[in-house]
Specification:
CATH superfamily of one domain: 2,3-Dihydroxybiphenyl 1,2-Dioxygenase, domain 1
Shape: globular
Strand order of the largest sheet: 1-4-3-2
Order of helices and strands: HHEHEEE
Distance between the termini: 75 Å
Strand content: 5-15%
Helix content: 10-25%
Number of helices: 3
């Protein structure tokens, strides 16, 4: 055999032994990660008396109103799970023309319910304990439905 042929056989043998001859082509470049929202940045809804309703939410639930200027800090919520769930149009909560319901996480549902009831708010506690926790329901002064949720303790 001539030297060129021997060299070609040796190179081919080396490529086969390293798997380079049968290697997959270079992988396609990875697509950039898809952007996601990081949480709820605000909840906006119509009210007959926005100032009075904002005071009610602050007094009863501890939700600070929107700051009057950019130098003030808005209400900060604790990190935790948030359900985002479009419901069928015929779902039974609130007024028949109501298109939304707020659900607020609480640490101690019984304490929050007692506090609300002591201030005259009507609250209905769901008797069932669900796999994800306990719930209670109430309405703000304008009839908007509110759900309180005590997530099930991890353990």
């Amino acid at each position: 055999m001539n030297k060129k042929l021997i060299m070609l056989v040796l190179v081919a043998a080396a490529l086969v032994s390293t798997g380079r001859v049968f290697a997959d082509p270079a992988p396609a470049p990875a697509s950039p990660p898809k952007e996601r929202v990081t949480g709820i940045g605000g909840v906006f809804f119509r009210a007959s008396d926005p100032a009075a309703l904002a005071r009610w939410y602050q007094d009863k639930l501890g939700i600070d109103p929107v700051p009057a200027d950019y130098g003030q800090k808005p209400w900060a919520q604790e990190a935790g799970p948030t359900a985002f769930a479009p419901f069928p149009k015929d779902t039974k909560f609130g007024k028949s023309d109501q298109g939304w319901m707020m659900d607020f996480r609480v640490k101690d549902l019984d304490a929050m319910v007692a506090q609300l009831r002591a201030s005259g708010v009507v609250v209905k506690v769901d008797a069932t304990t669900y796999p994800n926790g306990r719930f209670a329901h109430l309405h703000d002064p304008e009839g908007n439905p509110i759900e309180l949720w005590e997530p099930k303790a991890k353990g």
